[in-house]
C-alpha cells in the first residue's frame, strides 16, 4: 500500500532552491573578478597541468573585461547567499534536523561502503535513513564550505577592518586561495550531486520540492509509523 | 444547515488524491517562484545603466546596492584598525606600475614648477611647494598594497601623514567636510575620499619609495598612499586638493566601480 512519508521540511527546500541560483550568480560574477588577475593553476615539477582558466573558457562565457560588473553583482548577491545560508543553519540547529545531517562516528567507515556500492563494486546496500553516511558527510561539508566562503570572502573584502578574520584565514593570499578552491569544490559537488540525484530517481527528487516521498508499506507498519511520526490525518 | 451536511458526505481523500494534491501545490509554487526568480533576474540584467554623474557605468539597482553596502560596512571602520606592516626587507624592489592615467598624457608637466594647490575657498587656493612638505615629520610605511584587480605587493613608502599635513597648514576645519577630492595637474585622473579614510593614521602623502625620491611613473613629486583603499584611490602626482560635503568626481566610480572601494 502506498504511503506518504514526510522527508524534507519547508525551510530546507526553500533554502536549497534559493541557494542554487544565488550560488550560480556568485560563481559567475566571481569569474569576472578572478579574470582580472588569474593567478592560479596547478603545476607539478614546473609543468602546468591546469591553468585557471584557458582563454577559450573565458571567451565562451564572455568573462573578459567585466571586473566592475562582477564586483557589483558579487557584493549584492553575497547578501542573499549569506542570509539564506544563515537561515538554513539556524533552522537546522533549532529544529533538531542536524541530528540526521551531521556525520556520526561510524559514518566515515560507512561512507566508504556507500562509495563502493555506488560504483557497483560492492552489492550490499548500506543503511539508508534520511541520509546515508556519504550524504551526511557531503551535506555537512557543503554547509561548512558555505561558511568558509563567507568568512574568506570577508577576509578578502575588508582585510583591514576585519584584520582578525584575515589573520584567521592565514592572510590575504591564503584567504583568496581558499575562497577560490571552495568555488571549485562547489562545481565538483554540483556535478556529483546531479548524477546522484538522477540515479536516485523521481521520488527522491520530488521530495526536495514537495517535501514527501511515497513509500510502499504493509498496513501494520503504516499504523505504527503514523503514530510515531504523529502525522496521521 | 445544508452546508455542513454536504461536508460530512464528502469522502476523505484517498492516498492517491493526497499525493496528487500536494504535488500540484508544491510544484505549482515551485514553478511560480522559479518564474518569478527568472523574471527578477531578467529585470536586473536588463536594468538601465545609472544616470552618469559622480558615479556611472553600473546598472542602477546594482549601484544602489553598492552604496547601501558601503553604508553598512562603514560601521566597521575604525582608526584603530590598521593595515598590517612588514619589515623593510620584505618590500618589493621592483614596484609595479599598473596605470599612468594623468601622467603619461601630460607632456607639459614640469616637476620643477610643481606646487600642490589646495582649494581653500571658491577663489582662494594655497600653493605648497615640495620642500615645505618634506620639512614636515616623515612617516614610513611598509604594507601590502592591494589592487582592485586582485594582485597585491608589499611596498615601502615614505612621506607625511595626511592628518599631520592638514593640521600643519591649518586645514582641519576644511577637512571636517565629508570628502576630499584629489586631481592630477592635468585633471585626467581624480579620486574622492571620505573623511574617515583621509584622517586614518596610515594615510600619507608620499614623496619617497624604497628610501629614494619617487620616480615619475610612481607619481613624483607627491602621491597619495592610502592603505585602507584599493590602489585605484592611491592617486599619483597630486595637483589639486579640495574639500566638499558631497562626493567629488572619481575616475573609476564613473566606470562602474564602487565609490567607496575601502578595505
Brief description of this entry?
The complex is a heterodimer of chains A (233) and B (263). Chain A is mainly alpha-helical and 233 residues long. In chain A, 68% of the residues lie in helices and 8% in strands.
Strand arrangement within the widest β-sheet of chain A reads 1-4
Average pLDDT figure of chain A: 88
CATH architecture annotation name of the largest domain in chain B: Alpha-Beta Complex
| Separate helix tally of chain A | 10
Uncertain runs of chain B? none
Top CATH class of the largest domain in chain B: Alpha Beta
**CATH fourth-tier homologous superfamily of the largest domain in chain B:** Oxidoreductase, molybdopterin-binding domain
Strand/helix succession of chain B: HHHEEHEEHHEEHEEEE
Tell me what the structure shows:
The complex is a heterodimer of chains A (about 230) and B (about 260). Chain A is mainly alpha-helical and about 230 residues long. Chain A has helices at about 10-35, 55-60, 65-95, 100, 105-120, 135-155, 165-170, 170-200, 200-210, 220-230, and strands at about 1-5, 40-45, 45-50, 210-215. Helix content of chain A is about 70%, strand content about 10%. The longest helix of chain A is centred in the last third of the chain and has 30 residues, at about 170-200. The radius of gyration of chain A is 21 Å and the shape is globular. The two termini of chain A are about 15 Å apart. The model of chain A is unreliable at about 220-233 (pLDDT under 50). With about 260 residues, chain B is of the alpha+beta class. Chain B has 2 domains: about 1-45; about 60-255, Oxidoreductase, molybdopterin-binding domain (Sulfite Oxidase, Chain A, domain 2). Chain B has helices at about 1-10, 15-45, 60-75, 130-135, 160-170, 170-175, 195-200; strands spanning about 115-120, 125-130, 140-145, 150-160, 180-185, 190-195, 205-210, 210-215, 225, 240-245. In chain B, the strands form 2 sheets. In chain B, strands 2-1-10-5-6 form a 5-stranded mixed β-sheet. In chain B, a hairpin with a 5-residue loop joins strand 3 and strand 4 (about 150-160). Chain B is elongated, with a radius of gyration of 28 Å. Chain B starts with a helix and ends in a 19-residue tail after the last strand. The model of chain B has no long low-confidence stretch (mean pLDDT about 95). The chains are: A mainly alpha (about 230), B alpha+beta (about 260). The interface of A and B includes residues 36 and 75 of A. Chain B: This is Molybdopterin-dependent oxidoreductase.
Amino acid at each position: 500500500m502506498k504511503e506518504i512519508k514526510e522527508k524534507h521540511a519547508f525551510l530546507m527546500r526553500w533554502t536549497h532552491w534559493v541557494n542554487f541560483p544565488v550560488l550560480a550568480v556568485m560563481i559567475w560574477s566571481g569569474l569576472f573578478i578572478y579574470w582580472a588577475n588569474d593567478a592560479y593553476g596547478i603545476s607539478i615539477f614546473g609543468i602546468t597541468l591546469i591553468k585557471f582558466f584557458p582563454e577559450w573558457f573565458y571567451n565562451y562565457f564572455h568573462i573578459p573585461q567585466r571586473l566592475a560588473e562582477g564586483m557589483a553583482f558579487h557584493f549584492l548577491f553575497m547578501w542573499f547567499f549569506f542570509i539564506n545560508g544563515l537561515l538554513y543553519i539556524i533552522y537546522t540547529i533549532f529544529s533538531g534536523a542536524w541530528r540526521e545531517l551531521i556525520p556520526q562516528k561510524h559514518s566515515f567507515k560507512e561512507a566508504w561502503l556507500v562509495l563502493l556500492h555506488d560504483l557497483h563494486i560492492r552489492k550490499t546496500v548500506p543503511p539508508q535513513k534520511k541520509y546515508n553516511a556519504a550524504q551526511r558527510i557531503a551535506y555537512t561539508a557543503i554547509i561548512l564550505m558555505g561558511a568558509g566562503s563567507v568568512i574568506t570572502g570577508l577576509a578578502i573584502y575588508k582585510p583591514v577592518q576585519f584584520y582578525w578574520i584575515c589573520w584567521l584565514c592565514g592572510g590575504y593570499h591564503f584567504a583568496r586561495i581558499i575562497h577560490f578552491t571552495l568555488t571549485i569544490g562547489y562545481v565538483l559537488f554540483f556535478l556529483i550531486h546531479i548524477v546522484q540525484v538522477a540515479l536516485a530517481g523521481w521520488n527522491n527528487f520530488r521530495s526536495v520540492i514537495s517535501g514527501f516521498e511515497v513509500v510502499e508499506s504493509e498496513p501494520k507498519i503504516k499504523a505504527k509509523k503514523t503514530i510515531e511520526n504523529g502525522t496521521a490525518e | 444547515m445544508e452546508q455542513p451536511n454536504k461536508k460530512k458526505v464528502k469522502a476523505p481523500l484517498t492516498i492517491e488524491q493526497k499525493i496528487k494534491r500536494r504535488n500540484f501545490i508544491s510544484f505549482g509554487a515551485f514553478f511560480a517562484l522559479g518564474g518569478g526568480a527568472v523574471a527578477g533576474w531578467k529585470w536586473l540584467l536588463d536594468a538601465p545603466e545609472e544616470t552618469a554623474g559622480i558615479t556611472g557605468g553600473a546598472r542602477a539597482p546594482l549601484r544602489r546596492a553598492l552604496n547601501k553596502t558601503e553604508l553598512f560596512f562603514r560601521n566597521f571602520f575604525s582608526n584603530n584598525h590598521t593595515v598590517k606592516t612588514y619589515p623593510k626587507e620584505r618590500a618589493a624592489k621592483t614596484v609595479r606600475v599598473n596605470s599612468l592615467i594623468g601622467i603619461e598624457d601630460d607632456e607639459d608637466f614640469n616637476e620643477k614648477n610643481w606646487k600642490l594647490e589646495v582649494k581653500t575657498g571658491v577663489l582662494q587656493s594655497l600653493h605648497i611647494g615640495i620642500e615645505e612638505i618634506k620639512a614636515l615629520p616623515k612617516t614610513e610605511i611598509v604594507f601590502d598594497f592591494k589592487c582592485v584587480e586582485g594582485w597585491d605587493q608589499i611596498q615601502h613608502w615614505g612621506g607625511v601623514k595626511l592628518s599631520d599635513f592638514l593640521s600643519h597648514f591649518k586645514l582641519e576645519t576644511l577637512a571636517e567636510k565629508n570628502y576630499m577630492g584629489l586631481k592630477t595637474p592635468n585633471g585626467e585622473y581624480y579620486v574622492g575620499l571620505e573623511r574617515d579614510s583621509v584622517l586614518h593614521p596610515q594615510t600619507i602623502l608620499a614623496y619617497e619609495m624604497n628610501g629614494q625620491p619617487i620616480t615619475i611613473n610612481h607619481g613624483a613629486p607627491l602621491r597619495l598612499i592610502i592603505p585602507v583603499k584599493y590602489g585605484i584611490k592611491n592617486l599619483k602626482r597630486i595637483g589639486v586638493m579640495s574639500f566638499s560635503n558631497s562626493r567629488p568626481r572619481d575616475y573609476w566610480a564613473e566606470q562602474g566601480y564602487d565609490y567607496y572601494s575601502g578595505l
